[in-house]
Design brief:
single chain, alpha/beta, Protein-Tyrosine Phosphatase, Chain A, five-stranded parallel β-sheet, 17% strand, DUF488, DUF488 domain-containing protein
């Protein structure tokens, strides 16, 4: 029987830095995998790429990785965000993008195990990090997903 992979997901909006970093530490996350298209945005000061990488290492000895293949394209994102798009359409397009990119072959179970997918959405419901986690679980079949 295959070892079960533990995969976390977290969004940073509606969380202050203390809550964000303490949640990651308490859960035992070993690495944060940034799934944002734009990881240098001003949205949340503590999650800009270079700052986030530093804070994760210092506060929790947590590794930081940015994987653009796990992010939506600008077109898909813009259509949904700016044009108040339909979640069902976004989900379908994003899952097709993941399939086209064959992300299950580009990320290894070793990288994913103990990792936390990061994006900005406060909850996983209408968020691509949940779609990435579920897609990988569908392909590999041995992932326990925990939304922080």
């Amino acid at each position: 029987m295959e070892e079960q992979i533990e995969l976390f997901t977290i969004g940073f909006t509606q969380k202050n830095a203390q809550k964000f970093f303490e949640t990651l530490k308490k859960s035992g996350v070993q690495r944060v995998i940034d799934t944002r298209l734009n990881n240098i945005s001003q949205l949340a000061g503590f999650t800009k790429k270079t700052d986030l990488e530093y804070f994760l290492k210092i506060i929790g000895n947590i590794e930081y990785v940015h994987i653009l293949d796990l992010a939506p394209t600008k077109d898909i994102l813009d259509e949904y965000k700016k044009n108040k798009g339909d979640w069902g359409v976004y989900e379908k397009k994003f899952l097709q993008l993941l399939a086209n990119r064959k992300i299950e072959k580009k990320v290894s179970p070793l990288l994913i195990d103990g990792a936390c997918l990061l994006c900005s959405e406060p909850t996983p419901h209408n968020c691509h990090r949940r779609l990435v986690a579920e897609y990988l679980n569908e392909k590999w079949g041995n992932i326990k997903i925990c939304h922080l």
